[in-house]
């Protein structure tokens, strides 16, 4: 079976008429016991209705398909319907027990499991008979370095111990050599061409299912009554543009401002940007989404929303006609430090019966500053949060040896996830 078979087993556009409320969450990382506990508690007490609620999960539940992923997905599907887009953690392979498998094999397994569990992974029209129908379009993607904003801070990138570089195998997409044709000064171990591969897999959504036609679908379902509002909601795990990066502070600015590095972990942020997502993804989203007219925007009749995951730094902002939302559960330590809100919950984004889009309570650009008290509060929290000792294991690694030789930035770690964690002191280590 080719890895493009996500679209072969069912219609390109599935209908879920009964859905009323649409929620989102990403980066559940239920390998962490605290996150498992969180999920149990929030599903048990969440007042979800399995017939009328849909939860969009934008990737990174767990790499462990035999146990953790299935258990977590079972809890979710017991209480609500689920639409899932795999994240980078789902692409991790077990080299020890399956030395010949690839990450393409792994993603196929993920889609198979989702299909067996009744989890949506394809385009979905919800509430077609409702006043506010919504189209949901899951998009596959990866990262390619195109969101990089400070190559000068990435000269040790080829040694950077980002876990995907060890735990993913992309047959046919090896890292490029430094002297090959790329705009990146240091492509390191990025699997070049992989984003184009995944975006090409999204193309059937454009070829066979142009979205203006879906308005006709909804009108027909509504006995030709025009909906009060319609929305198109795209979903990816990875970041689509520089504005969605954790450090990007001013949406009106075209260039990154080094003053935004006030947290002191700029080198980490610059390197994370290279594994965060792809500008090609936003190009595809904007090609997919019809541009709303000024009247549409003023009347709220047509809404464009993109949900993403991966960075563990919450976002909710509108940029050039699209609302971008990142609502991660993240790691326990990130909640302790207010990188992610300690009160994080499933975010309601659409109601097909009453309001259509559920507006943001407030714009979110840098949550730890806007709601978490900023640097002074962070310094207090850091003093009371145990540092992660596991990073000491990597002292003496090629990365740290390279740093010693070239006096590179202070960060030292194996990084499974996440960008800047403000360095309120010299020993602060970002979380995984
Ligand atoms: Fe991720």
Main features:
432 residues, alpha/beta, Purple Acid Phosphatase, chain A, domain 2, seven-stranded mixed sheet, five-stranded mixed sheet, 14 helices, 12 strands, disordered C terminus, binds fe (ii) ion
Ligands in the model, by name, code or SMILES, are:
fe (ii) ion
CATH class annotation? Alpha Beta
In what range is the share of β-strand residues? 5-15%
In the residues, how many domains can be counted?
1
Question: In CATH terms, what is the fold-level topology?
Answer: Purple Acid Phosphatase, chain A, domain 2
Shape: globular
Side-by-side strand order of the widest sheet: 1-5-6-7-8-10-9
Helix coverage percent: 25-40%
Strand runs, count: 12
Distance between the ends: 34 Å
Label the CATH architecture. Answer: 4-Layer Sandwich
Instruction: Count helical runs.
Output: 14
Mean pLDDT: 84
Low-confidence stretches: 389-397, 402-414, 424-432
- Summarize the main sheet: 7 strands, mixed
Using the CA coordinates, give the radius of gyration. 21 Å
Return the string of H and E elements: EEHEHEHEEHHHHEHHHEEEHEEHHH
Secondary-structure-derived class: alpha/beta
């Amino acid at each position: 079976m080719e890895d493009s078979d996500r679209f072969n087993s069912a219609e390109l556009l599935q209908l879920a008429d009964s859905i009323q409320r649409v929620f989102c969450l990403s980066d559940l990382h239920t390998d962490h016991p605290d996150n498992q506990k969180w999920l149990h508690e929030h599903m048990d007490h969440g007042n979800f209705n399995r017939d009328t609620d849909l939860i969009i999960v934008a990737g990174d539940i767990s790499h462990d398909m035999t146990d953790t992923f299935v258990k977590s997905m079972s809890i979710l599907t017991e209480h609500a319907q689920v639409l899932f887009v795999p994240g980078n953690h789902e692409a991790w392979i077990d080299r020890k027990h399956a030395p010949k498998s690839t990450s393409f094999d792994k993603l196929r397994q993920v889609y198979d499991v989702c299909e067996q569990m009744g989890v949506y992974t394809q385009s979905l029209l919800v509430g077609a008979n409702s006043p506010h129908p919504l189209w949901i379009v899951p998009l596959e993607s990866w990262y390619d370095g195109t969101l990089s904003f400070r190559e000068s801070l990435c000269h040790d990138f080829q040694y950077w111990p980002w876990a995907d570089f060890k735990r993913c195998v992309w047959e046919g997409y090896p890292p490029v050599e430094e002297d090959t044709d790329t705009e990146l000064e240091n492509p390191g171990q990025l699997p070049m061409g992989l984003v184009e591969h995944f975006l090409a897999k999204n193309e059937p959504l454009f070829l066979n299912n142009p979205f203006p036609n879906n308005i006709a679908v909804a009108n027909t379902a509504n006995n030709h009554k025009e909906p009060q509002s319609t929305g198109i909601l795209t979903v990816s795990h990875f970041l689509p543009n520089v504005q969605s990066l954790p450090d990007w502070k001013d949406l009106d600015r075209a260039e990154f401002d080094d003053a935004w590095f006030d947290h002191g972990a700029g080198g980490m942020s610059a390197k994370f940007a290279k594994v965060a997502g792809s500008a090609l993804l936003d190009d595809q989203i904007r090609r997919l989404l019809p541009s709303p007219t000024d009247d549409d925007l003023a009347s709220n009749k047509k809404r464009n929303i993109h949900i993403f995951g991966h960075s563990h730094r919450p976002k909710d902002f509108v940029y050039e006609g699209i609302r971008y939302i990142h609502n991660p559960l993240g790691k326990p330590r990130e909640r302790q430090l207010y990188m992610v809100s300690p009160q994080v919950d499933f975010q309601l984004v659409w109601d097909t019966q009453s309001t259509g889009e559920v507006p943001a309570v407030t714009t979110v650009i840098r949550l730890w500053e806007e709601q978490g008290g900023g640097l002074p509060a962070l310094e207090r929290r850091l003093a009371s949060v145990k540092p992660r000792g596991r990073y000491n294991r990597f002292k003496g690694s090629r990365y740290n040896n390279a740093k010693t030789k070239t006096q590179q930035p202070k960060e030292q770690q194996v990084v499974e996830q996440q960008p800047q964690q403000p360095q309120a002191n010299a020993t602060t280590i970002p979380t995984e």
